Input
Amino acid sequence: MLASILALTLAATPAPPPDPSPPRSASVTGRLMFREKGRLLAPRDLRRALHGARLAIGLRRGWDVLVAPVGDDGSFHASATAGVWRIEWLEVGGKSELLAPHEVDARPGQTTCAGQLELAMQDVESELGANAGSQLAVVDRCAGLGPGNRQPVVPGVARPGADYEGAGSRGALEMLAGLRGGWAFGEGENGATVGGWRLELVGGLSSPLGQGRNLLLVASFADANREVSGVVGPPVAATRAIGLGGGYAPFGWLEATAGGEVRFGGRSGLVPWLALRAGNPAFGLGGRAAFGPDGRELSITVDLSPLFLVGSLL
Output
């Protein structure tokens, strides 16, 4: 009797709900082929040209890296976590051939086929691994591909990706990359010498900072000193300034900006300025013109990014 009651109770108990989170395991597959002078060749056709070098496709997602060995028929497979992976290089023995970035979306619980990667060059033997301008094209061809596991193979042909991972998005590191500390030194009217340190935060309309054809926004805080005829003026000659401006970067290495700053602590007032900078997000040299209450000031500027400085020491 008790056994019957227990059996009925267990039968009436609802089963626990299924786990709503999808499986995070996934895999990526594809095929690598070479185009040499119009001919389509598999790695097995290039054994002599490759001198026995091992081939492997390099994929990256943030800090995670996958290396997928390439077989004689060109096929490659890699187990991965679900998400967007970037195909970025081809290992050739001890060398690497950099590829135009392509992105493939590895779907949870499935094997995603990145398609057939066709690497074109004039002479594979002399050019492969030399980064001599190979061209990568991806063809939607997935027949016969798959790692042989139970995961279904779905097409997900790799598509061209941005030069930088995460382009168009902004994180804390992207914003900190625009923080610059620098020094300006120059001269003003009436033989005055001007100089002081400057802290700037530069952001781009497009991400990442350091690419060409980008609109810029600049916020700054500065401490400037003005010395006339070799005699340092009274304490009020030391002026603080808070500024705001904008500009344009026609190239990744060149920035032209303009704006205004409010000076206080000395000769206060609103001061317009113009600046030109050459360099990269880590380091730059430039020139600056300000039109303050004591006349025009022309300065040479040098700046350094604390983020890149710390990163170079790690």
